[in-house]
Amino acid sequence: MSRERLRLGLLALTQLIVALDYNIVYVALPEIGTALGFTPQSVQWVVSAYAVGLGGLLLFGGRAVDRLGPRKLFMAGLALYAIASLAGGLASDPGVLIAARAVQGVGGALLTPATLALIYRSFAEGPARNRALGAWGLAGSAGLAAGSLLGGVLTNYLGWTWVFFVNVPLAAVCVVAALRLLPADPRRTQGSFDIAGAVLATAGSALLVLGLAAGSSAGWWSVQSTGTLLAGVAVLALLLIVEKRARDPLIPLRLVRGRSLAITMGVIAIFQSTLGGGYYILTSYLQPVLGYSALEAGLSFLPLTVVCMVAAVKLAPPLLDRWGIRTTLALSMIGAGIGIAALVAGISTDGGFWPLLPGSIIWGVSGGVAFVTLFASAGTGVAPDEQGVAAGVASTAKEIGGAMGLAVFVAIVTGTHDALRGLHTAGWVAAVLTVAGGLLAFALKPSRTVERSAESVGQAGSAG
User: Fold this and answer.
1) Count of CB atoms situated within 10 Å of the CB of 352
2) Number of CB atoms found within 10 A of residue 161's CB
3) What single-letter DSSP state applies at residue 248?
4) What's the rounded Cα separation, in Å, for the pair 77 and 83?
5) Which of 16, 22, 255, 311 is the least buried, fewest Cβ under 10 Å from its Cβ?
6) How far apart are the C-alpha atoms of 422 and 284, rounded to whole Å?
7) What is the mean pLDDT of the chain?
8) What are phi and psi of 351, to 5 degrees?
C-alpha cells in the first residue's frame, strides 16, 4: 500500500473517532442520565458541552493550523481527545463529565481543521480531492454506524463508561501512526498571531453555543440563555470590527464575504442542526416511547448510517465530478429533507423498526452525499496557507448549527405533554429546514470543473 493511501487512511481514522464519539454518546444518554443524576432537560449537556468546547475554539484552531502546522495540531488534538475521554469514563458526577466533554471538544477543535487542512493540501482540487473527501466521509459514516451499534453493545454489557474509554486506544494508535506517516510541517508562515481575534472568536462562539444549549433547560427568556446569546452576538460583532483593522487577522474577512464560503457556512449549519436534531428525535422515540434497549436502539440506527457510508464513498465523488458542487449539494440536501419527512411519517405509538426503514435509507443516502459535498465546497478556491482557517470557519458553522438544532428540537420535544406530538412537530421542522438548505445551495456559483468539462464537450462537438 502506498504511503499516500496510508496517510489518507490515518486521516480518515481520526474522522471515524470523532464520529464514533458523536453517535455513541447519543445511544448512551438515557443510561448516563440515570447513573449520574441528570434531568431530562440537562442530559443534553453531555452533547452540548462538547459543542461548546469545539465550536468555541475552531476558529482559533483553524488559524493555529496555518501558523503552527497541521501535523503538530493534529497530534495535540488527538492527545487532548484521549485524555478527556479517559476522564469522562472515570467521571462520578455530572460536573466532571461535562468538563471532560468540553475538553474533548477543545481537542476536536484542533484535530478537525488539522485533518481537513492535511486533506486539502495533499490532494489537488477536483476529482483527487473529491475521492479523498469521499474516503473521509466514508470513515465518518462508518463511525456513526459503529457508534450506534458499539454504543448499544458497550452500554448494554459493560456500562456507559466504556463509550468514553473506547476512544483512548484509538487515539493512541493514531498518534503513533502520525509520527511515521505525516510529513513534517512547512516552515512557519511569516506574520503575527492575532491574539485579540483569537480571544474574541473563542469567547463569542462559546457564548453563542452556550446560550443555545441553555435554552431548553434554563428557559429561552432567562438571563442564562438570552443574556448569553446577546453577549455572544455582541462579542462576534466586535470581532468583525477588530478583524477589519488587524494587519494579520485571525479570519481574513474576504473569505467570509465571499459568496461561496458564506453560503456553504449557512448550509452546513442547517445540515448539522437537523442531523443532530434528527438523531435526538429518533433516540427519544426508540427508547422512551417504544421501550427499546440501548442495544436495540443502536441496531435501529444501522441502516441509516451504513447507507450514508456507502453514499459518501461511492456516490459523492462521481456526482461531484459530473454535476459540480452546487447541483450535488442542493439535490442531496433536498433528498435528506425528504428522507427526514419519510422517517417522521413512520413514527407512531404502535410502530417499530420497519416503518422507519424507507426514511432512514433516503436520509442516509442523501446525507452521505451532502456531507462530502459541503466540505468540498468549503475548501474550493482557498489558498494553501488559508486552508486551516477555511476549515475552521466551516466547522464552526457546523458546530453552532448542531448546538442550535439540538437546543431547538429538545425544547420542542420536551415542551409538549404529548411526547409523540412533540416528536412529530420537531421532525417536520427538521425536514422543512433541510429542504430550505437545499434551496439555499442553488445560490452557489457553478463549479469550475463542470464548466471546463462542458466547454470541452462543446469543443469536441464543434470539432466533430
Assistant:
1) 13
2) 19
3) S
4) 10
5) 255
6) 10
7) 84
8) -80, -165
Query: Please, are residues 338 and 362 in contact by the beta-carbon 8 Å criterion?
Result: yes
CB atoms within 10 A of CB 196: 15
Of 382, 379, 370, nearest to 116 by C-alpha is: 379
Question: Does the CA dihedral 42-44-50-54 come out positive or negative?
Answer: negative
Q: What is the per-residue pLDDT across 177-186, written as a single tens digit (0 to 9) for each?
A: 999 998 888 7
Q: How far apart are CA 187 and CA 190, in angstroms?
A: 9
Closest CA to 168 of 88, 98, 94, 111: 88
For residue range 295-323, what is the model confidence (pLDDT) as tens digits? 788 788 888 878 988 898 889 999 999 99
Region 387-405 average pLDDT? 80
Q: Residue 14's closest CA among 89, 92, 71?
A: 71
Distance of CA 416 to the CA centre of its chain: 28
Tens digits of per-residue pLDDT, 35-71?
888 877 678 788 778 877 877 788 888 888 888 889 9
- DSSP H helical segments within 219-287, as ranges? 228-245, 253-257, 259-284
Q: Which three cell numbers stand for residue 224?
A: 442564562
C-alpha cell at 90: 472515570
Least Cα distance to 260 among 134, 401, 381 occurs for 381
Residue 249's SS3 state is coil
Residue 437, C-alpha cell as written in the block: 438548505
Choose among 132, 128, 108: nearest CA to 53: 108
| Distances in whole angstroms, Cα of residue 125 to Cα of each of 234, 317, 369, 379, 384 | 36, 12, 17, 8, 11
Residue 258: DSSP 8-state? S
H runs (alpha helix) in 123-194: 127-157, 162-165, 167-181
**Is the CB of residue 364 less than 8 Å from the CB of residue 304?**
yes
Reading the block at residue 184, the C-alpha cell is: 513534517
The predicted structure's pLDDT at residue 392? 81
**What is the rounded CA–CA span in Å between residue 373 and residue 376?**
5
